[in-house]
Amino acid sequence: MVLFVVLASCSAEDGADGDTGPQGPAGMDGVDGTNGTDGQDGQDGQDGNANVQNLTFDISTVSGSSYTQAVPELTQEVLDNDLVYAFVQVGSLTYPIPNILNPAGTPFFIRTFMQAGTFQLRFGLATDNSAYDLPAGTLEQLRIVIVESTASKSAGETENELEAQGVDVTNYESLRAHFNLVR
User: Fold this and answer.
1) Contact between 69 and 143 (Cβ < 8 Å)
2) Total-model pTM
């Protein structure tokens, strides 16, 4: 009979599983590893604004009664649809153009003409509209700011919106600050 009891205890059938026991205590955290060395800094990306282009050209050697600057960013699409603001720097001052300037005692005007790929400046005496032979070194920089319009807003609507936000579109520093442009 003893043999029978042993065989009954070793049968292949199992009973039902019991309930899961309570969660045991958490183990101790391991020791932190040593920090690795910092990686090399990446190259800075180009500053800017996705829908604004800020172009600067050195025109300090320009002389004569006109000057044409190649500007490939002035596509026909830009001319037809977007806002294009232009400025010249004379010393520490930046003037919107077209305009009348008088940096050295001779008042002269700057007229602007744009076509796809070029931006032209023409100089004339403010007193009689005759051609003015601009001396080299009078102007330092030409700055062109192109503000893209959208499918839902025309260039005029975009400009009205800028002005409603307090942006003086005739002031380069106002545009630069509003669009966070780099000089």
Assistant:
1) no
2) 0.71
